[in-house]
Amino acid sequence: MKIKMLFDRVLAKELESKNTTKSGITLDYEGLNNIKRAKVISVGTGNLSNGGKIPMQVKVDDIIMYEDFASVKFKDGMEEYVILKQDDIIGIEEE
User: Fold this and answer.
1) 3-class state of residue 69 by DSSP
2) Phi and psi at residue 29, in whole multiples of 5°?
3) Looking at residue 16, what DSSP letter applies?
4) Helix (H, G, I), strand (E, B) or coil at 85
5) Which residues are registered as beta bridge partners of 40?
6) Count of C-beta atoms within a 10 Å radius of residue 50
7) pTM (2 decimals)?
């Protein structure tokens, strides 16, 4: 499937959430279940504001974190995807 996102929308494929940091610390708190991870598949070109363009901060293949309630979910076969606005992305995982 190929979908072109518009404006500040992001299409991403859900990933399993990490509960352990690289240093081995286990994250175990109630709010963790609301934080999700996904790999970016497609991004829009950015949004317009006051005659200017707000650029996208994420790019294809970035691993992003977002709150579960902020996404629209859909399935294509066995694959589960989410659509988000850029403002609803909490962060980008870095190596």
Assistant:
1) helix
2) -145, 160
3) P
4) strand
5) 12
6) 5
7) 0.78
Q: What CA–CA distance (Å, rounded) separates 78 from 45?
A: 28
Angstrom distances, CA of residue 39 to CA of 28, 30, 57, 69: 23, 23, 14, 17
User: Where in the chain are the domains?
Assistant: 9-92
Residue 28 pLDDT: 58
Of the pLDDT bands very low, low, confident and very high (cuts 50, 70, 90), residue 80 is: confident
47 and 6 Cβ atoms separated by less than 8 Å: no
Write the CB contacts of 81 (distance below 8 Å, at least 6 apart in sequence).
11, 12, 13, 14, 41, 73, 74, 75
24-74 tens-digit pLDDT? 666 655 555 678 889 999 999 888 888 888 889 999 999 999 988 888 888
Task: Report whether CATH 2.60.40.2340 matches the domain 9-92.
Answer: no
